[in-house]
Amino acid sequence: MPSIDIQVLEGVFSAEEKAEIIRKVTDAFGEVAGQTIRAGTSVRVHEVSSGSWGYAGNILTTEDALEMRARD
């Protein structure tokens, strides 16, 4: 069945927030794929070490991500 992997920087989301991400992603997928497939959907949240993620040649840290969250 479907497997959905989500990567986030360590220390940005609490355990409760990661659980909410898992529930909501599973529900959203089920709305499109149907409830039978939803029941077999696996969602994993992987934490990447601060400084081990980059985009466009720039390094992203936990502090950077926390600053981004604070803007919302």
From TrEMBL:
Lineage: Bacteria, Pseudomonadati, Pseudomonadota, Alphaproteobacteria, Rhodobacterales
Span of domain 4-oxalocrotonate tautomerase-like: 2-61
Keyword rRNA-binding annotated: no
Gene3D superfamilies to which the protein is assigned, alphabetical: Macrophage Migration Inhibitory Factor
Assigned protein family: Belongs to the 4-oxalocrotonate tautomerase family.
Keywords: Isomerase
Protein known as: Tautomerase family protein
